[in-house]
Amino acid sequence: MILPIVAYGHPVLRKMCEDITPEYPDLDKLIANMWETMYASSGVGLAAPQINRPIRLFVIDSEQIINNLEEDEKDEYPGDAGVKRVFINAHIVATGGEEWPYNEGCLSIPKVREDVYRPETVTIRYVDEHFQPHEDTFTGVTARVIFHEYDHIDGKLFIDHLKPLKRRMIKSKLDDISKGKIKVDYKMIFHK
């Protein structure tokens, strides 16, 4: 089932999310709905707060980014084949490498894209959908997508990484989003 996406301005997007247990109600169904929602809205990642659930859960599919690159562009992300994965109760262990810019967007902040600087690598501890523990290091665009979705479960947004001047320049767009004055191809929840 395709779920509505929470728009910028909704308080759930600013909550520090809670870890969950394997007994979380209908978790398999929730994860399936998140994948369906993410793909239906042309996303590469989706965090639970974006569907109005303040829990530490996100899904990513960076394979679609890597697979859609031109052959010469793939050289920019050596060692990054992309991943399609569920992250539950994720906690960053370490980051590394040079910070580099990438033009990010967000389903909760539609039609706003800005360059955000993030580290090259991230090591993250999490459990998968079967609650099997993992600690993995990711690089390149996959690390980027993980950082972005991880921010969501910590109550942060990609715009929080922008310099104050950039934030002021997009303020009217953000205000329009929070007031529901935006048209997108997917259903959104606006805070009233």
From TrEMBL:
| EC number(s) per entry | 3.5.1.88
Keywords, A to Z, come to:
Hydrolase, Iron, Metal-binding, Protein biosynthesis
- What is the top-level taxon of the source organism? Bacteria
Q: Does Transcription appear among the keywords?
A: no
Spell out the InterPro entries in the cross-references.
Answer: Peptide_deformylase, Peptide_deformylase_sf
What does the record give as the reaction this protein catalyses? N-terminal N-formyl-L-methionyl-[peptide] + H2O = N-terminal L-methionyl-[peptide] + formate
Q: Which GO terms describe its molecular function?
A: metal ion binding; peptide deformylase activity
The active-site annotation reads 149
What does the UniProt cofactor note say? Binds 1 Fe(2+) ion.
Q: Does the keyword Metal-binding apply?
A: yes
The cofactor named in the record is: Fe(2+)
Its EC top class is hydrolase
Tell me the Gene Ontology biological-process terms attached to this UniProt entry.
Answer: translation
**Binding positions (Fe cation):** 106, 148, 152
> What is the recorded function of this protein according to its Swiss-Prot or TrEMBL entry?
Removes the formyl group from the N-terminal Met of newly synthesized proteins. Requires at least a dipeptide for an efficient rate of reaction. N-terminal L-methionine is a prerequisite for activity but the enzyme has broad specificity at other positions.
Which HAMAP family does the record match to this protein?
Answer: Pep_deformylase
Concerning its family, UniProt says: Belongs to the polypeptide deformylase family.
**Protein name listed in UniProt:** Peptide deformylase
